[in-house]
Amino acid sequence: MRKTLGERLAYEGYAIEATDDVSEASEMCRQMAFDVVLTDDSSNASPLGIPFIVLAGAGDNQIQRAVTAFRDGAMDFLQIPSDINRLYDTLRRYSEEEAPTQTPLPKQRMSAHAMGRARRTRTSSVQPIIGSSNAIGNVRQVVERIAAFDTRTLITGENGTGKELVARWLHAKSRRASGPFVEVNCAAIPSELIESELFGHERGAFTSAIKQRKGKFEQATGGTLFMDEIGDMSLAAQAKVLRALQENKICRVGSDKDIDVDVRVIAATNKNLREEIAKGNFREDLYHRLSVIVIRVPPLRERSSDVPELTQHFVDEISSLYGIPPKPIDSDAMEALSAMRWSGNVRELRNVIERLIILSGDTITIDDVHKYCQS
Ligand SMILES: Nc1ncnc2c1ncn2[C@@H]1O[C@H](COP(=O)(O)OP(=O)(O)OP(=O)(O)O)[C@@H](O)[C@H]1O
């Protein structure tokens, strides 16, 4: 599909780069200006914060994949080959709409089944932060106030409260918005790999280092590095990150040359870092480097007045994903939803709404809520 589509789009006048290797794609993005990404895996494309379209072959689990794609921020989800004309139309419209803001390039540059960078994250591509409670209003206000500054920011809050969404807004409203938004989940990387993941490595630095590779700090140059689950990083890794933050310099594994980095660091954690410091699990000096500003995103149970608005938002979004009219919700069902504890916060609410849309009849009733939600 990649080859055929690449040839066809090249014939249409687009400049195409194609690869089947994710890290090679990231590298290409560092070196060239792309407008859009075509990929079959939104999780690979979304961390770059670049507009992307997800393509799926026939027979894949379409609904689940479409839901995941849009959740990750895809511009569109298309089935190939049946939606091929829609793909051409979307690309044509997109390049026409976007053309005036482009630096004059003879052709739109595009990466097929890979990654691209050009306009990257635009404010319009970040989902809105929904909610009218004072608690979420305060969060929005802090975002507005600090976004323009390069201040290091620590976002705290339970899982699923919206910490990543807040980080994306900070980026989108900053002067770095046209730079990359690079996310690294510190909890997901084994401690022996974290140094190379964050700082990169030279060829031959260790047995599996067959090529030179840039780390997340370098990839985020000119943009924002979002370090998620920072409280789960090993003490050894914390020491290395501390040095990078103190000196704004990094050193690739296997190299003795320092590289200057121009990155705004936003960190997030669901842990109480003060407690982790007391227990000896987190370095106090790193905490102070990261937490010039601290934004606490409150759990949903502390802002249950937001539940109806969030519910309506997810009903509209999910119904439109499935191509069905939004299902009405009875008022007592809405009340029951507002009264729940939501230990998984906004993410859990979204999942429950999706379940209710699929399983309920024409209207979502209180019986559906009792039957299908065990919060
Ligand atoms: N206020 C909000 N308005 C709209 N959507 C929201 C809001 N808060 C969270 N969401 C949505 O809820 C989901 C979870 O949010 P997000 O991933 O930002 O949470 P998180 O705190 O980073 O979670 P984790 O700690 O598990 O990484 C996402 O789909 C996000 O878009």
UniProtKB/TrEMBL annotation:
- UniProt-recorded Gene Ontology molecular function terms: ATP binding
Q: Which domain of life is it from?
A: Bacteria
User: What keywords sit in the KW lines?
Assistant: ATP-binding, Nucleotide-binding, Phosphoprotein
Q: Which residues form the Response regulatory domain?
A: 1-95
Read off the SMART domains from this record. AAA
Biological-process GO terms, alphabetical: phosphorelay signal transduction system; regulation of DNA-templated transcription
Any matching Pfam family: Sigma54_activat
User: Which residues carry the post-translational modification 4-aspartylphosphate, per the record?
Assistant: 40
Q: Which residues form the Sigma-54 factor interaction domain?
A: 129-358
Entry protein name: Sigma-54-dependent Fis family transcriptional regulator
| Organism (species) | Alistipes communis
**What is the gene name?**
dctD
